[in-house]
Amino acid sequence: MDDGSTDGSLELLRDWARRSRYAVDVLTKPNGGQASARNLGLEHATGEWVTFPDPDDLLERDYLRAAARFAEGHPEVRIMSARPVLLREAAGRLGAAHPRHWQYRRGDRAADLTEEPNVFLGVSSGSFFRLDRIEPQRLRFDPRIRPNFEDAHFAVRYLLEL
Fold it and tell me: For residues 32 and 126, what is the distance between their CA atoms, to the nearest angstrom?
């Protein structure tokens, strides 16, 4: 998704799509903010799960594969959160711990949010949502919530519908 970038990102996306072994659609639109861009993505989404990495997020090589494996092994799961790791860019290394590292001490696992409500990260950028739960309620990101927290608003509304 290119949201009106002026830094050459669109051409990088198109080049990556041409080289990818997967069918990739590159969407582009005038800049309208994160909510607008994510909503366009939802309009074109197919498959079982969706996620919304932020522009400054770095994803490990097997990030999506690991999420798919976990989802396949836990078909009852309706939302997934990834463990965030801080990149200390100036130092060129990964940070020792994200402020919410305590959530991930027990490793990859399914959790009952009625019993452990604080283990959910609470944002859409590090979470995976089932598309079949989004579409019936036409859940979308609210573009009036700017410049931040539209993702948490989306995630909470998703959880309330579970």
Answer: 21
User: In angstroms, what CA-CA distances link 110 with 19, 74, 78, 92, 114?
Assistant: 35, 7, 10, 33, 12
**CA proximity to 83, closest of 64, 60, 101:** 101
CA dihedral of residues 11, 31, 129, 115 (deg, nearest 10): 130
What whole-number distance in Å separates Cα of residue 81 and Cα of residue 108?
10
Phi, psi of 134 (to 5 degrees): -80, -45
Q: What is the pLDDT of residues 51-65, one digit of tens each?
A: 998 877 888 889 999
> Which bin fits 145, alpha (ψ -120 to 50), beta or left (φ > 0)?
beta
Report which DSSP code applies to 8. S
pTM: 0.86
Are the C-beta atoms of residues 41 and 52 closer than 8 Å to each other? Answer: yes
One-character DSSP codes across 96-138? S--TTGGGGTT-S----TTT-GGGS---STTEEEEHHHHGGGT
Give the pLDDT confidence of 85-96 residue by residue, as tens digits.
777 676 666 766
Q: What is the pLDDT of residues 123-153, one digit of tens each?
A: 888 899 999 999 999 999 999 998 888 999 9
Beta-carbon contacts of 15 under 8 Å, excluding residues fewer than 6 positions away, are none
